[in-house]
Fold each of these.
Amino acid sequence: MLETRSLADCTDAVRANPGSFVLLELTARNAAALLAWLAELDRLDPKARAAVAADRSMRSWEWVAREAGAVWFVTSPREVRPVAEMARRHLQAVPKPQRELVEELWDSLPWARY
């Protein structure tokens, strides 16, 4: 899991992690940029998916966000579980990138986890 603070940083993270699942926060202030970014996600990474979280006041934006490419739209903390399950299933289905033997060995060492 990686938190980014801008759409540019999110773009970099998606490029570095093919098949990402992204959760975007939609606000009145970032709506235009976020929807444009979401519409371009398929070109950036065809295997990546994105869900959108917004304040209840932004509920009317749901279908615009879905049309732009959001696989889920949530406006309540009680609706987060389906997003987490969707992300889990998506990430399990994405093939893991090939790694060098040295990287795999390093990650298997007990101190590599700290």
Amino acid sequence: MILKSMIAVMILSASVFANNCEEITYSKKWIDYPSKWNESCANFIKDAMTEGNCSELKIKRVNESKIIQTSIGSSLMCVYHGEEGIYQVMASQMAEPHQAILLFSKWD
């Protein structure tokens, strides 16, 4: 009986940790990302969400028209107000290899 309870707790714990989509503030860095990603910050946001185990439905709901984005030369910056917090992206193709960083800040 105790063994069954322990196994059930382990399974539930594993499922909680498996889906940590937008549960905590985090940052992600890319080195040598595809050049076409500089066309839209949505590429970085969706990649971070995929790696963070967000559901396909949640990733598809990223509304590109709500991304505030600016680019100057080969630099890209943006802010996106997601469902659970704010995504901020800075990317540069001036650096070799290309580099970008994303910061997700969880709503308080």
